[in-house]
Amino acid sequence: MQVELSQLERRYESLRTRSASRENRLLASLAEVGQQTPIVVVRDGEQLVVVDGYKRLRALGRLGQDTVWAVEWTLGEADALLLERLLRRGEADSAIEQGWFLRELMQRFGLGLEELARRFDRSKSWASRRIALVAELPNSVQEHVREGAIGGHAAMKYLVPLARANADHCIALADAVAPGRPTSRQMALLYTAYAEGNASTRERVVREPWLLLRAIAETEREGPGATPVEHVLEDLRIVSAVARRARTRIGRGALDDANPKERLRVREGTSEACDATSRLKQRCDLELDKPLTEKPHAGSDDTLGDSTTA
User: Fold this and answer.
1) Which pLDDT value is given to residue 294?
2) How many CB atoms lie within 10 A of CB 50?
3) Which of 2, 110, 141, 186 has CA 20 to 30 A from 130's CA?
4) Can you tell me the distance from the alpha carbon of 269 to that of 125, in angstroms, rounded to the nearest whole number?
5) For residue 299, what pLDDT is reported?
């Protein structure tokens, strides 16, 4: 049957993540050959509730279409939702998407953990963990996942543990990286830097994650044949280049319109950078002044306090 888009109730649209690339491919296909597969709806009184086909609806709307080809299932709403999920089990939902779905079934239809576990042929603890996972992740971070800016698997593996440790940092990091649509590997690098860093490092990770990722990428471009000394020289080149760039930006008036809070942050950041470069010089001088016959302590602790909070 043909149904007007305006007549459809889209109450479950937020239970799936979006992918710009997949939606663009679908848009191109619909523009070329038209709709080939109907969406699935069920009745809730006088309303037609969409069970499957949200990507098609968005694409048809972008194409200026007013109607959609739909098929109506004569099932209860909860049973229809469960059947739709079972029919596409080959598509791997992330744990977060599973959590959204289970929470919706629990809240809207009153299904308990035992019933959910039975319906999905899983354990009760599996259902409980998925629902808890969603509860732990801040709502604003979940929105980034829904929009496809941050992958569901990356959010589960890296942002959920971060939210447990520091919810404010989790939100700040997600807001900072989402516009650039990071890969899972990039999220792993950021999480590792955060987990292994001190308080000052963690603040910089959540404030300037893309700067850190660019520095890592530059280091990786050095090539596998670089010697340890060449690695150090490349690190020093990066430090010098970043310092020159910051000085140039300040000289061009970057701070002219800064408010008092921003000026304080810049002052603190400058102090941290100066402290880090000062300790770097001390460590280099210490190592370079050693007799050539004295072997360096590879992997030794930093005796000048690099591990302390700046």
Assistant:
1) 52
2) 21
3) 186
4) 45
5) 45
Q: What pLDDT, in 10s, does the model give residues 195-214?
A: 988 888 899 999 999 999 99
Please state which CATH class domain 1-88 belongs to.
alpha beta
Residue ranges of E strands in the chain: 2-4, 8-9, 39-44, 47-52, 67-72
The residue to which tokens 């109730």 are assigned: 9
| Per-residue burial over 146-179, b = 16 or more CB atoms within 10 Å of its CB, e = otherwise | bebbbbbebbbbbbbebbeeeeebbbbbbebbbe
Instruction: Please report, for the chain, the start and end positions of each structural domain, with discontinuous segments joined by +.
Output: 1-88, 139-219, 258-310
What length is written for the chain?
310
Strand arrangement, sheet containing 47-52: 2-4, 67-72, 39-44, 47-52, 8-9
pLDDT at 222: 59
Record the tokens describing residue 259, joined without a space: 């408010």
Tell me the whole-structure pTM to 2 decimals.
0.63
